[in-house]
Amino acid sequence: MSLVREDLHDYCPVSNHAVNDKIVQLTKAGKNVYHFAFGQSPFPVIEEAVEALKDNAEQNAYLPVTGIPKLRKAICDFHCHFDDLHFLPEQVIVAPGSKELIFLLISVFGGDILIPSPSWTTYKPQSVLAGHKPIIVENAMEEGWKLVPEKLTKVVQQLGKKIPKLLIFCNPDNPTGTDYTDDQLTNLSLVCRENNIIVLSDEIYARLHFKGEHNSIAKFYPEGTILSSGLSKWASAGGWRIGYHIYPPELKELLSAVSSAASHTYSCAPAPMQYAVGEMMSNIPACDEYIQHSTRILKAVSEFCVGELQSAGVKVIASAAAYCIFPNFEILREPLKKRHITTCEDMCTALFEEANVAVIAGGPAFLRPLDELTTRLCYVNFNGKLALNESRRIGLSFPLPDKFVENFCCQTFEGIKVIVKWVKAQLEETRFCNVSI
Predict the structure, then answer these.
(1) Which residues pair with 197 in a beta bridge?
(2) What is the distance, to the nearest Å, from the Cα of residue 405 to the centroid of all Cα atoms in its chain?
(3) Nearest to 358 by CA among 336, 340, 333, 376
(4) Which of 51, 172, 416, 435 has a CB 3.0–4.6 Å from the CB of 205, allowing a cystine?
């Protein structure tokens, strides 16, 4: 008799962490790998947080489950400044990462879980771990990989309205980097409001919008939106494990249940980090300066990657924010088929073995079909400290020079060139075979 639940028989670790662990070991052993498979910030932790942590390293007490008042107020002021959203500290719960709060919410929620595809690797496994059978809502590249009201409505009609529903909505999106306009969010909000769908809006990448124009669905559907965010991406503090959720008053029943679950699991977020982050987030000018430099660097890198891949015939939608793009290598369908490569995972294996390039297949990790040749490509494998220092030296009053990516984001620049070369080699091999025949 198995000691593991029957429905977890095929349960496995998150794919990006497994790949990252492997590549770290290979790199330590001296292998040069172009690592596009992990979405970790390339930049150093924002300096104000580091200094504040030094001053609060001795904090060792258990803290309130929902977080210290200073931090929760700083979070509210932060979102008021950047998003024009107005919250009260009692609506906020802080945790060791937003990932933990997403899992606890899914665990206490008594209804259906809706997950768009493509999707971040963890939403579905967390749902399964919590005992749910999530319903997948298919997005399409032709629609910019965005969730459209018609498809959401169709799924809800099939399920019926009696059972409550929780939509896990990532904006800006991981893995595609796409964002939403006011009109698109308005239309989605109408469907959610009409069908009593609660939205968990994962906005961990919001501050990394390339134009500084992030739109939150909480503006259009405030009574039904739970906002999820944290410090991992924009503040480059992934290992600090500080995340938070903000609940509307209408969903205080859920907040109470999650808070109770938190008291029985993680107790509180780490004390030194809470005090340090509370000070850092209160320093809006410092946060704003750091964000502006980071986003303009990421924008330059993203535009380079998209342009190079598109020039080789790879289909890819330009990212509006974040760390990643979701290229479709459909142009290689026939060349790869002749090599007996028919799944995206097999293509990724070939790319790694032949060009030392690591990316993650769209399926199954990101809920795409196994034979669809989409991959998540994270363009953050460069020396962020070097790039950030150069951007600051140039100053925000001046644009980054044309060769910034080539000179200061070298590993990413070289890796994309290697991918393009590999793609062209597959196409050339096919042309050669056709001519020979």
Answers:
(1) 165
(2) 22
(3) 376
(4) 172
DSSP state of 371: T
| Strands across the sheet containing 225-230 | 92-95, 243-246, 225-230, 197-202, 165-170, 112-117, 135-138
**Max alpha carbon distance in the chain (Å)?**
75
The one-letter amino acid at 419: I
Residue with tokens 């107020």: 73
Instruction: Please give the structure tokens belonging to residue 173.
Output: 């999106």
Amino acid at 274: Q
Measured between alpha carbons, how far is 429 from 101 in angstroms, rounded to an integer?
49
Whether 434 has a pLDDT exceeding 80, the answer reads no
The answer, yes or no, to whether residue 34 has pLDDT greater than 60, is yes
Residues 328-366 pLDDT 10s: 999 999 999 999 999 999 999 999 999 999 999 999 999
Phi, psi of 185 (to 5 degrees): -70, -35
Give the number of other Cβ atoms within 10 Å of residue 3's Cβ: 4
Residue 159 host element (H or E): helix 149-159
Share of the chain above pLDDT 90, in %: 90
Cis peptide before 369 (omega within 30 of 0): no
The number of C-alpha atoms within 13 Å of 8 and in the hemisphere containing its C-beta is 14
- Cβ contact 276:53 at 8 Å: yes
